[in-house]
Amino acid sequence: MAQTRGYYTGGTIHVVINNQIGFTTSDPRDTRGTLYCTDIAKMVDAPILHVNGDDPEVCLLAVEIAMEYRQQFHKDIFIDLVCFRRQGHNEADEPMVTQPLMYKKIAAHPGTRKLYAERLEREGVIAAGEADAMIAEYRAAMDKGHTRTGRSSPTTSGRSPPTGRGSAAGTGRCPTTPGCRSSACASSVASSPRCPTASSCTAASRR
Fold first, then answer.
1. Which of 5, 90, 137, 175 is the most buried (most CB within 10 A)?
2. How far apart are CA 109 and CA 115, in angstroms?
3. What is the pTM of this model?
4. Both 22 and 101 in a single domain?
């Protein structure tokens, strides 16, 4: 229906996160009658780009091709991102039961980020250890963001978020409403039983 008047959008880019475990069958010959899960797109003559999820640069190239195709021809295009889900369907699922061969390979897979970092080091794009330094820098920035919002980082301090009159006076925020950032709270908590900016905030309960 992509080309009908009522549903035409000028072209849609369909990205299929193909983690290969949509069914509990181990043999692809038992999952469907076609080779690829995106073969259904052939009935509307939509191009299909099959991409290795372990190659970030090729994934980016596929997106660029899809964008240019959509902008020029105003038709649908599919990206079949072939990847995997390490932990199965959900937290309680054990995929080794239904797909033991695949998940033996997945268990030995180092991860896309690590593979790409090793490739960049081999090509001399980044220095040895630079990728790990980027991760440490990013996590430090995230932890710093937690601190700025008045919530301690579980990876650094292990302390509970500040509460009570002392915390309001020190941070200028309501001690009971995380979204309240008014400096008026700091001066009013001692004299007013309620936060002046949040009707649901009962600062008196902290006094």
1. 175
2. 9
3. 0.63
4. yes
How many structural domains are present in the chain? Answer: 2
Query: 129 is written with which tokens?
Result: 């250890």
Q: Which residues pair with 15 in a beta bridge?
A: 79
Q: What is the pLDDT of residues 86-140, one digit of tens each?
A: 877 766 778 888 778 888 898 999 999 999 999 999 999 999 999 999 999 999 9
**Token digits of residue 25:** 């069958």
Going from the C-alpha of 61 to that of each of 11, 37, 51, 138, the distances in angstroms are 19, 21, 10, 25
- Within 13 Å, how many C-alpha atoms sit on residue 151's CB side? 12
Asked whether residue 169 falls in the same domain as residue 102, the answer is: no
Residue with tokens 């440490």, as numbered in its chain: 136
Position 124 in a domain? no
pLDDT in tens, 142-185: 998 877 776 554 554 455 555 544 444 444 445 545 555 555 55
Task: Give the C-alpha separation, 129 to 141, whole Å.
Answer: 19
Last residue of a domain, one of 109, 124, 139: 109
**Other CB atoms within 10 A of residue 134 CB:** 12
